[in-house]
Structure formats: structure tokens, C-alpha cells
Fold each of these.
Amino acid sequence: MKIPVSAMRLPTRPAREYESRFDREQSMLKMLAIPIASVLLASMVTTLPIFSSGPILPPFGLLMFLSWRLMRPGLLPVWSGVPFGLMDDLFSGQPFGSAGLLWSLAMLIVEIIDSRAIWRDYMQDWLIAALLITAVLLGGWWISGLAHATPDPMILFPQILLSILLYPLVVRICVRLDSWRLVT
Amino acid sequence: MAPPPHRRSGFSRKAQYSLFVTYVLAIAGTIVAALLLMISVVDPAGFSALRTFGTEVTAPVARVINNARQSAQAITDTFSAYIDAASKNMALEKELKANRSALIEARALRVENARLRGLLNIANDDPQQVAVGRLISSTASSTRRVATLSIGRNFGVERAQAVRGPAGLIGRVIETGPTTARILLVTDSENLVPVMRASDGLPAFSAGLGNGLVLIKPLSLGESPFKIGDIIVTSGNGGLYGANIPFAQVIRKTSDGALGLPFADPANTPYAIVMKSYLGTARAAQQAIAPDGETKEVAE
């Protein structure tokens, strides 16, 4: 007997078929692990074999962190800039504590903006992120100058521009991850 | 998006306190991060153990991807070699003929050099290689130019050893882990390399600019003596980097020096050789007599 192709079903998760479709709960693990893991993995992009003659690779950890914060206020606690920043410092090559301080300050600034603003839309999010990215990259340059000899700040310009232009892409990745996080 | 409702904690004392505690934690965390930063500014090598741990954990992934990248590069090279193969062959044969005579001259010079060295009784303190590895990643998002090497203490790599590729000097080792090492590239602003012009031995210093180029400053004052196309090699002064390692080519003249493009491109170097510290024995002997930091200046 022939089975029509349309009638064939992949044997995925048979148990779900018999569960109720109402009132399902999200997995608590997924709810917490996806934002945390995505920021950490984005920080680890620098350990891939990408060689550049100057600082050109955008700080993906920071972009991911900011987009989670701006897209889902209240998901990451106010103090989360410190642990995420310190993890980023392990991989970025900056003096240890530099991102810990700068990301935490960025977090506090967004918190202040949130307490003043009633509503912000996507373009305002982008503007806030652009200003914070610029401030954090210049701050990182200044901090690195405290410990070591540093080059001219103008070499940061391409990186800042690239980071600001890549922010919408990171937000879209974040949105996909968020819908995966909240799926029941 | 609207601010979240958790901010308006209402009349619940518990909610008000927990909101307050998050702010206290945030401020305290910021202060702790600032203190950590101050420690690492005062002592840049202080947190190297943590950084090494991070590199060690992520190194296997970087190794696999780097291998794939290198083989992909080899494939494209193989294919592109077929384009213009005939004309390339002709040009190479011409070059080979020209090089053959230069090679014979070089051989004669080497014999003469050895004879003269024998006459002057100069010990042959050639830097020897410790191990051969690969560069597996770099700090592409930071203003510092630091790369990760695929070998570490397991192959005898130590701090302050010079690292070179087949094309030229890459940098020096600043931190070592069990199976990885971090290398300060010559293009980092922190890295000063004593160099000389290959043609006449004009001494100079090179400092990285952080954008892939190095600034070469001659020790002599006055107008820049460099010309575009000058070959710069390491001079071996200071005893850290060995002598006569190809270093850079001058690409632009500045008012008091020159901009050079290093021969070794970290992105495209097939392997990296870790060299024994040049004149390491002499330095060890000097340290045994008068260690750094313990000798005091004599008051006049």
C-alpha cells in the first residue's frame, strides 16, 4: 500500500501530540540560558581565527548585550553589565575590568533613560545604542591608554561606524533568539 | 518599548526592597569593576591567568576553524595557479636565471663571512628555534594587537621569546598558557623593535601604529634618510629579537622617519617559529652579577 507524501510525518517529539495545547509553560532553562549564552558567545567571536591589521571587528558581545537590554527591558538585571563585561574582558585583549566598568555604566545610563522616557521606538533604540557603542569604544581606547601605549583614536572610526551599522542585524538575531526562547 | 512594569513596585515592601537591592548591586559592581581595572592598569600581567584560561577553553574551536581556513586558502591558491600558467612560467624562469647568479655570489659571501668571523673570533650566537606553531586568533576588536599562538609551555614557549614567520618578524611572547601563548605583534603601539636598514645598517627604532603599519624612526637626528622601498631588518640590539630577521619595507617617508609595512602578515602566515632569546646567555650572566632593580646608582 502506498502512503501519499503529504500524509508522511516526521517522528518528532511524539509525546507532544497528546499533550494539551492550552496553558503550556516555557522551559525555564531556555528562558534564562538563551540571553546569557548569546551574549557570551558573541563576546567569544574574537577567539575565532579573524586577523585584522587594526581594530575593525565590531564588539559583538556589546551589541548583543545592548540589543537584549533595549529590546527586553527588565530581562537582564541592572547589575548584569559587570559579569558580562568581565567575561568579555577575558577575550577582547583589553585590560581586565575595562568592559566590566564600561558595560555597567552603559547599563546604568539605559536605566536612567528608561526612567525618564515614557516610550521609545526602534529608531530611538538605535540612536541610544549608537551613542553607547561610540562611548564604550572610545572609553576602551582611553582605558587601554592608561596601561599601554595606544595608537591615534582615529583608527577607531571604521570600527565605530561598522558597529553602528551592524546593530540592526544583531537586533534581528536577538528577535529570532527571543521567539525561540519564548516558544512553548 | 515601554518601560517595564517592575519599576512601579507599588505598595509591596518586598518588591520595593528587591528593586532597591538591584540598584545597590549595580553601583557596587561598577565600583568593583573599576577597582579591578585599576589593579590591571598598575599590573598589566596580573590577570594573565584568567585570560589564559579563556584562551585555553576556546582554543580547540579556533584550531579547527583555522585548519579549515588554511586548507580553503590552499585550494584557492591551487586553482588560481592555473590562470596565466604559461606566462607566469616564462617570467619565473627568467627570474630563476637571474637569481642563480645572485645565489652563487651569496654562497661565496657566506664562506668569506665565516672566514672573517673566524679571524675576529666572534662566537656564533645564532638564535635557535624553540618550537613551531600557528597563529589561531587575534584581538580584532581591540586597539591592542595581540595574537594567540597554538602552542604554549608544553613546547617550551616562554615569556619574551621572539616569534617570526617565514616572511619576517611577527612579535614576541607576552603570556604563556599550557597549550597556548599570547603574542604582542610588532604592529602594537607598545612594541618597540630595534631595527636597521639592510643596505647600510642605519640604526633605527620601530613602533607599531595599531593599523597594520609601523613607524620607523632613525636614531640620528635630522631629515629622514629613508627612501620608499628600503628594506628594514632587525638589528639584534638589546638582545631580545635576533639580528637580521626581515622586518618591514618602507612605503612612505615622513618628516623624521618612515612608515613601514611589516613583511609578516599574521593573517596569512602558514606557521610561526618561536625563537630562543637572542644573546640569552649573555643576559643571564649579566643578571647573575647585577640583577635588574637591585643595583643602586652611586651618589656623586
Amino acid sequence: MITRRKLLKSTAASGLTVAAGGLAAPALAQGAKIRLGYVSPQSGPLAAFSEADQFIIDGFLGSDAGANFEVIVKDSQSNPNRAAEVAKELIIDDEIDMMLVASTPETTNPVATTCEAEEIPVISTVAPWQPYFIGQQGNPGDPGSWRPFDFSFHFFWGLEDVISVFTAMWNQLETNKSVGAIFPNDGDGNAWGDPNVGFPPVLDAQGYTLTDTGRYQNLTDDFSAQINAFKAANCEIITGVPIPPDFTTFWTQAKQQGFNPKAASVGKAILFPQAVEALGDQGHNLSSEVWWSPSHPFASSLTGQSAGDLANGYEAATGKQWTQPIGFVHALFEMAANVMGRVEDSRDPDEVAAAIAATELSSIVGRIAFDGAGLPPFAVQNVAKTPLVGGQWRLKDGGGYDLVIVDNSDHPNIPTGGTMEEIAS
Amino acid sequence: MIWVDTIIQGILLGGLYALFAAGLSLVFGVMRLVNLAHGDLIVMGAYLILVLVTLLGLSPFVAVFVAMPLMFGLGWALQRFLLNRTLGDDILPPLLVTFGLSIALQNALLEGFSADSQRLPTNALTTASVEIGSITLGVMPLLTFASAVLVIVGLNQLFYRTEIGRAFRATSDDATTASLMGIKPANIFATATGIALVIVTIAALYLGLRANFDPNIGPARLIYAFEAVIIGGLGSLWGTLFGGIIIGVAQTVGAAINPEWQILAGHLAFLIVLLVRPRGLFPRAND
């Protein structure tokens, strides 16, 4: 059993630098445990994102570095107002040193905004960076007015990555380059369909024609209008960012009405294996963006586990198939341990924020550094990008689906498990 | 041809809404009770069918017949021991209790089944279609519509051809006088809710086969059901079917113009009917 004292003594004696997992840091020697607040949607429609939370937090607290921390977990109930409220409770009642928040702009934004106002350092993830950064601005429509944050930091990919991954996957197939889009009237749908920063300009530049019928409301029961329009335009590719029940409705109706595209690359709806299984055997070769998988060649700075080990551990502990948020929630706690390992006083928000900004961490989701790589100037200070690749769901013998990486053109260090296949009609 | 297709798809969609609404319409017609937990009860029915399918390895179409008596018993008990106590001159207590029931059901389902979205196991039937001229129609939507019509016909037979139906109508018209004639309103109400939950089970089957469901999806299903009941006229069963079709067609026609109009068009149709016929299209004369 390694106690905190013993660990600090031994690491100090062996002359390890702070960079080595952040275990020998002065802030860890202050006696009292460092208090982390963690907000995520554990109930409500977004709860699937948080299913691995308990597993990850138990693993973190059981690790050597994690023993120095106390994690106070709050449920946003998938409600932005509730998220802001529990963030305030964590800051005022629980007097946390740092906030961690994960999963969808509906959770990250209210919490990050609250922390920024209360001057508490916050690290967020699992939301594309545009809705995180632009969504928190006073006037999202006026880029000139956008200001960086002092205490709020975010690591994930952006819309430009998903566009690049999807088009790279389609380019692997012989198609007529006619794309049909189902973009809902919500934050994601409006961003994906935006004529300036969304899919339309990129598709145009690459010679694709886009049939975008307009923004529909979530939980729509009928997609005949879209299907008719796609048939009329002879679309061979489908893209969009619907919620899972809507995609099931759309895909089932498309098959019923004899519309069989060659590729369907869809964000959000088919993120989780359960959602693909809900399609019966109609989910074969649907494609999606992949932010993390067990075959990603990264390891945890906290436990040394590889991505594959972490996913296997989760499957063994819960009996459920791995999901993508596992890696990112784990990386959040890696960030916490790493940052707190580099500060003198964990209660000094300015010092902690400066330490976050100076992070350069090889985490289980890849390198995290706020060096502005691949980002426009306004977001450089607050956002770190992680790699994104493309994958296809393949039906397994005996039921269930596997996510196979089929495109890595943007990040060749992440191995592919196959190449893009057409959907059989 | 697109327009013919649009309208037919809308009518079929209306069948689904009518199926969602039929139980609500029945309960309202008999005891003036607006059951805000109706959508959540449909979701619960879908989970019940899912459990039967997984545990007993039945086809969903067989499992629904196993689920029906269970749901009838549940509805009977729910009305007899809970909702009957809330009925009275004041319309607020039943609303509040069913609202609370809705939240309790959602969280119980979340606790029991987690937030994963589920779907009843599907086979080739789900994506099967028939060609009529140049229009391709799904077999599943056709089945849904046929079931809705069957349910409405069945309920009408029950109401107007049987003794229990007579008791329903008598209690609905005047519970006090009916009880003088030896009818126990408490039991009549319980039976009505039981039958409503049998219909809920049928709705649950099609909900679960059509798309994903999760514990939180119920309230979104309630609103169209509610509108269908109101458009049709409170207490009128054929009106409910007609109301569902109006909303379905309004939605598909709205979407054909622009998908942004889809949901709005349904709601607008509802408002227009309310403006022109505040009591719905086929209100029962004596309400």
C-alpha cells in the first residue's frame, strides 16, 4: 500500500520531476485532500454519456495520484439550468479547488460560464469546441466581440474535423457525390448546416452537391418529405446529426420507402452501440465519427493502462460494451492529477489556471496541449484539439455491432481496422 | 404523385397518433380524468413487452398479448387505489397526481432500465414495403393504421353493444343516478382505466417497433395524443381517430413545404380547429 506521504517522499528522493505524472508536486503535500467538483448528465436523455462515470472515478480514486483527491459528483439531470445550479453549489458549499465537466454543450457551457464568473478553474470535454467557445459568447453572431476565458479550458475536436473525416470516408467510395442532409433545429444541427462554418462550403469545394431540406424539430415522427427530396436528387450519401430516435425513424422509413443510399455518415445518433443495435440488422456499415476507441495507440498518464486495457476493464466490470466517452472522462481526471501536480497552492485559481494553460500531457485520448494547433486565433487560449477518425459499425456474428476504424487520413498514427464499405441495399 | 404520397403517409402517421390517443380518449370520456402520465404508461408498456421478449424469447406480436392482462390489472389497481381518490369536483388533484405519476414512472424506468435507448427486436417486417402504383408504403405503418381502426371499432362495439359499455355511458352521464341503479362507479372507473391500459399496450408495441424509446420519451408522445383527442371532440372515439389523421396529414404536408414547418403545422391545425370548433369536431352532445 502506497500512502500519500510515502509516495511523496520516495518520488522526491528519486528526484522525479513534476512532469512524471505530476505525483511529486508541492500542492499534493499540503495535507488536506484536493477537492474536485464533477458535473455530468447522469440522468435524463443524455445519461448514456455518463454511464461509465462511476467506473472511471473509482479507478481514479484508487490510483496513486488519485488518493490525494476528493471528487464531489453532481448530476445535471441533462438540464442546463440544473447544471449551472449544481456548479454553484459545488463552488460555494463544497468549496472545490477545480471543476471538471463533461458531455454535451448543454452541460459544459452552463458549468464553465458559472466557473468563469466565480473565478474557479474548470476543464471541460465531450462537446465540439465551437458550441463550447462560441456558445458561451455574449453575442455568438459577432466574431469581433468574442473574448477568451480566463479560467475555462476545453479539450475535444471541432466541426472542421468531423467534416474532414466524413468527406474522407465518402471519397473512399464510388458515388455520384450527391449528399442528403438531415440537420435538426438544435445547436448541433444549426452548426453543421451553417452556410459559413458548417458542411455546405466544404462540400461545395470538394465537388459534392448537398440536398438540405431545412431544419426539422427533434422527435419528429415522419421523414417522408426528406426521403422524397433525397430520392428526387438521387442522393447516394446521407449525413446529419439527428438524435437517436429520429435517426431510427428516418432510417426505417427510408428502407420502407425504398431509399437505399450507399453511405450514411451520421453524428450523435449512432455514437453508442445500444443505439445501433436498436436498428436491428439495418445498422450494418453505418458510419460515424470516432473520438476514442480501444485501438487508439494511447495510454493513461495516471495508471499506465492502454486504451484497450481501460475498455476491457470497463467491459469486465460492468458487462457492457465500451463507449467513446470512457476515454475522455478518464482523460479529464488525468488532467486534474497532472495540473495539480504542477501547482504550489491548489486553492489559488490564478496559479491553477496558469498550470492548465501550460499543460502538455500524453493522455489516453492523445496529446492535450493548449498550443493552438489547428485552431483559429480566437480559440487558441482555451481549446486543445484531440484527434478524430472515422469508423463503421459492422454486424458481429451472433448479434451486436463492432465499431471498426476505416479512415485515419487526418491522424495516421491511429490504426485502421478496415476500409470503407458500401451499405448493401 | 409526391402529394398523394405525402397525404397517404400523413394518414398512416395519424393512425399512430390515434393509437396513442385512444386510451386517453376513453379515460376522459368515462370519468373526465386527464391522465398526464399516459405517455409514460406507453413507454412503460414498451419496456414490459421488451422484458417479455427478452425473458421468454417471444415475438413482440405474441408478447403484447401476454402484456395486455398484466397492464389491465395494473390499470385497474391504479384507478381503484390511487386515481379514484383524486376524483371529485375539483379537477386539479387528478392532474397533479398524474403529473407526479409521470415523473415517478420516468425515474423508476431510468433506475430499472438505465438511459440506454431500446427498441423491440425487429425482423424483416420492419422495413418491408408494398408498392401501390408508384407509391411505396411500409407494411409497419399500414399495420399501425389498421390496428388503430380496429381499436376504435372495438371500443365503439364495447361502448354501444355491451352491458359494461352501457354502464360506462351511464356512469359518464350521471354517476350518482347510475349508482342508484346498482352500478359501482369506482369499479366502472377501474375497469375503464384497465381497458385504456390494454390499448396503451398496443400503442406501446408500435412505439417500440417504430423507433427507439428511452425512459424520458413519454411526455413528447403525450402532446400529439392530447391534440388528437381535443380535435376529435372530447369523448368521441371516431373523433380521436379523425383528430390523429388531421395532425398526421398536417405534419407531412407542412414538412413537404419545408421540414421546419412539420411540427408547427400539426400544432397550427390543432389551433385552427379549436378556433372554428372550440369543442372539437365531434363533441358528445351532453358534455
